[in-house]
Amino acid sequence: MLKGILFFPVTPFAGNGSIDTAKLSDHLRAGIESGAGGVFVACGTGEFHALDLAEFASVVRTAVRVTAGRVPVFAGTGGPLPLARQYARAAEEAGADGLLLMPPYLVAGPPAGLVAYVREVVAAGSLPVIVYQRGTARFDVPAAVEVARLPRVVGLKDGTGDLELLARIVTAVRADPATGGRDFQFFNGTPTAEGTQLAYRGIGVDLYSSAAFCFAPETALAFHRALTTGDDELVRRLLAGFFHPLVALRERVPGYAVALVKAGVRLRGLDVGGVRPPLTDPTPGHLAELEEIIARGAAIR
């Protein structure tokens, strides 16, 4: 069972374009020491889409070594089915504790096809799997219940923002005799999830991924504490002063959900390099705005 802040580290690249495992180790240690409840490497924020199999395995091995069992390590997989199976096996061989299964590439299959996709990736190894509902992977209620019944599927992460659909999925999965007694977890996986977490909590989804934790751990932790202790006024101030401005900046350029996070890590003193194409790094003007947003968030307590 996962709890607390879920840390989605970036993947550092060296000047020659290779994976910088030393910087990754520093990034991971900082996040774990700040209080991460789980580490999700080589996922969306970690540019899973831009890593080859050897790079992916290196990232996962580094995370497993640095965490040393202190928190669970989940690794991304997804994309074309043959590749998703390969990455799933590589993550298991590298010592990961579980997988985050992201959407298949490009095509939008019907719910029955998505269930079959999940089933085949799960069968590629023995790790527990959290299924990410977003983009081309959108489950209806019967399909979500069927996926939740798979023995090694332990959670559903929602990035659609469709709370009406998710509320029906949560109710159906928790009422289903085959899943209701299991430790099945739901996650808010929308970009900058803090901005929508009040609404997700309203339908019983308490866990969320925090990209902001990568570069503003103090602010992310302050929000999490305020949310879980009922400090509504501090939640409001953090949303108004940090998270909502961050969302507004993020929405200006496609891909900024990742590029701004990586830029934020650099602004805080760890040179993790830029993003790989097709993403682009923030402009100087947007970097200046991001720096101001980070500073404002740090001042809110």
Plain-language structure description:
The protein is an alpha/beta fold and 301 residues long. The protein is 48% helix and 11% strand. Helix 5 crosses helix 6, helix 8 crosses helix 9 and helix 9 runs antiparallel to helix 11. The radius of gyration is 18 Å and the shape is globular. Helix 2 links the parallel strand 2 and strand 3. It has an 8-stranded parallel β-barrel, surrounded by 5 helices. The model has no long low-confidence stretch (mean pLDDT 96). The chain contains 11 helices and 8 strands.
Give the helices and strands as they follow along the chain.
Answer: EHEHEHEHEHEHEHEHHHH
Strand order of the largest sheet: 1-2-3-4-5-6-7-8
Quick one: biggest sheet?
Answer: 8 strands, parallel, barrel
Rg from Cα: 18 Å
- Whole-number average pLDDT? 96
- Structural class determined from secondary elements: alpha/beta
How many beta-strand segments? 8
The end-to-end distance, rounded to whole angstroms, is 30 Å
Q: Proportion of β residues?
A: 5-15%
Helical residues, percent: 40-55%
Q: Which stretches are poorly predicted, pLDDT < 50 over at least 5 residues?
A: none
Gross morphology = globular
Count of DSSP helices?
Answer: 11
Keywords: Lyase
Catalytic activity: 5-dehydro-4-deoxy-D-glucarate + H(+) = 2,5-dioxopentanoate + CO2 + H2O
InterPro entries: Aldolase_TIM, DapA-like, Dehydro-deoxyglucarate_dehyd
EC number: 4.2.1.41
